[in-house]
Every structure is written in C-alpha cells, then in structure tokens.
Specification:
Blueprint: H1 3-6, E1 7-20, E2 23-36, E3 40-44, H2 51-58, E4 66-71, E5 74-75, H3 81-91, E6 92-95, H4 109-119, H5 124-137, H6 153-164, E7 171-175, H7 183-200, E8 203-208, E9 219-224, E10 227-233, E11 250-253, H8 265-270, E12 277-282, E13 285-290
Parallel strand pairs: 3-8, 3-9, 6-7, 7-8
Antiparallel strand pairs: 1-2, 1-4, 4-5, 9-10, 10-11, 12-13
The structure holds adenosine-5'-triphosphate and magnesium ion (MG).
C-alpha cells in the first residue's frame, strides 16, 4: 500500500476568516493536516487557537475561506448541497464540545442513538439492533432507558460516542470530549475512543486543550494561532526531543506545503539567530548557523 492509499484527510493552506461587523478574525491561517485512514490523533491547542473551527470544517458544518481540504473521496470545497448532506450523514460522526448539545433531553439513551438512523432511513429492526450493540460497546447496556438527566457526565459522553457511530461513519470527530469530566472519567473516555479505533477501524480526530491527551493517542499535532506547528508521536527516543519533558514521546516540527518550517523562538534566541540563517547539509544532517 502506498502513502496516498493510506491518506484519508488532507488539508493544505487552510484559511478561515470570520467577519463579525467590521472586525475580521483569522481563525485558521494556512493550516496543514494529514491523517491516515484508521489513525487516532489529537489536535492540541490553547483556547482560541482554531480547534473547533477546524473540526466544524472537517464535519462539513462550516466552510474554509481558502485552501484545500479533502476527506476520503470528498473535496470539502467543491461539494454540492446533496453531497454535503450525504457527507454529514454517512462519512462523519461528531461529538460536540458542549455535552448537552449531543443528546436530546426528552429521549432515552436508546432513542438518542436511534435518532440519526431514523433520519438516514435505516429500518426499525436494524436500528434497534445497532443501537443496542453500540450502547453495549460503550458499556451502557444497563442504561438503555435512562434519559440524559439520569446519566452521569461520563455516561452522557459514552452515549454521545454511540450516537456519533450510529450511521457507521469512517470518521469520528470529537471536540474536547473530556473537557467537562474529571481526570479518571476523562481517561476512561479516551480508552473507549482507542477501543472504537481498534475494533471498528474508525479514523478519530480529537481536539483538546489538554496536552496530557497526547500520550493517550498515536500522534498529537499542536495547533497555534490557526496553524499546525509541531507533532508528537509515541515512538521512544528520549534524546531527540525538542526540549519538552513528555517521556516516551518524540516531537517533530512540521513542514508546510511551501516547504516552510517554523523554528521555535527559544531555539533561535539560544543560537543568536535573528533575520537570516546559513543552511548546510553535513553527513546527512541539516545545520543552521546565524547568517547576520
Ligand atoms: N462564528 C464566529 N464568528 C467570529 N469569530 C469566531 C467565530 N467562531 C470562532 N471565532 C474566533 O475564531 C478563533 C478560533 O475559535 P475556535 O472556536 O476555533 O477556538 P478553539 O480553539 O476551539 O477554542 P476553545 O478551546 O476555547 O474552544 C477565536 O478567536 C474565536 O473568537
Ligand atoms: Mg472549541
């Protein structure tokens, strides 16, 4: 299998500019992101860094201002309104940042999981069976007839995951799925997402402000000011870290489609590099020296 066969999400030079009254906010500025089919990744960034903006675009709820974005066979900039409906219904499952937005308060857990299947026209017997199976998979087979107010926060998130998976999408997007949970419950939700990824092969993208999540998934990409900057993988090679202290992980700088690399300011300051660098290749390594 070649890299292009594996490539599932491909975002390049993505911009999102919001206009509110006379004010323009650049929420994404040239973001690059590649995710392989069957991967589970976290996108980690501070509040306002553009995480929800990116996730809403990936979900087909919002559209970028410029750039390219492909998910599977869908070109998200070129979709007809019929394709958008098809994409949202069958390609992606979405878990919202606000827990309450994921569930209808007057429906039971079982009915909540069945609802997206009612909308997509799944037969009654099939949707009952699938809703039962999904709630069993997320560990809630004894809470089928509970309404959201009768469930804990962690249980509500489990139902939300089952809802997101109800139409068997190849992609599951989760916006801060552990944001409103305590550490232990949050950890269990991440374990469940890893299990879904392994058992169903679903590609999963989690966005979060919590850097600790990076150690729970295969790969974590940092987002800063609407741009992906560095990436951490779980491969162990402690001496090659970029100054971080996350034991057992390795951090890389990302190269964008124009070939640009953003070198952290503290590294440049340590080397007294200001406006220019001299670049050399020695013994297979690239070296940078002050050029001023
Ligand atoms: N609908 C909108 N109209 C105008 N500006 C917006 C809109 N949505 C988001 N923004 C702005 O875009 C930027 C990125 O917002 P976004 O919601 O993507 O951040 P986030 O990383 O998800 O933050 P948080 O961790 O707080 O959820 C912010 O500066 C925000 O104010
Ligand atoms: Mg957000």
């Amino acid at each position: 299998m070649t890299t292009s066969d594996l490539s599932y999400i491909d975002c390049s030079g993505l911009f999102k500019i919001y206009k509110a009254a006379d004010l323009e906010v650049v929420a994404l500025r040239g973001l690059e992101l590649n995710v392989n089919r069957g991967e589970i990744i976290a996108i980690v960034g501070a509040s306002g860094s553009g995480k929800s903006t990116l996730l809403n675009i990936l979900a087909g709820y919002d559209f970028p201002s410029a750039g390219t974005i492909r998910v599977g066979n869908f070109d998200l900039l070129q979709m007809t309104s019929k394709e958008i409906v098809d994409y949202r219904r069958h390609e992606v499952g979405f878990i919202w940042q606000e827990t309450s937005r994921n569930l209808f308060s007057y429906l039971t857990a079982l009915e909540n999981v069945e609802l997206p299947m009612v909308i997509s026209g799944t037969t009654e017997s099939e949707r009952k069976e699938r809703a039962n199976d999904l709630l069993d998979m997320v560990g809630l087979s004894d809470r089928l007839y509970h309404k959201p107010s009768q469930l804990s926060g962690g249980e509500q998130q489990r139902v939300a995951i089952a809802i997101g998976l109800s139409n068997q999408p190849p992609l599951l997007l989760a916006d801060e799925p552990t944001g409103e949970l305590d550490d232990q419950t949050g950890h269990e939700i991440l374990e469940l997402l890893n299990k879904v990824n392994q058992d169903l092969g679903t590609t999963i993208v989690i966005v979060t402000h919590d850097p600790a999540i990076a150690t729970s998934v295969g790969r974590a990409v940092a987002i800063k000011d609407g741009k992906t900057s560095t990436e951490t993988t779980r491969e162990i090679s402690s001496e090659r870290k970029l100054g971080g202290d996350t034991t057992g992980t390795e951090e890389f700088l990302l190269i964008d489609s124009a070939g640009s690399v953003q070198i952290p300011r503290d590294m440049l300051d340590n080397l007294n590099i200001e406006r220019r660098v001299r670049v050399d290749v020695n013994n297979g390594k690239v070296t940078l020296e002050p050029g001023d």
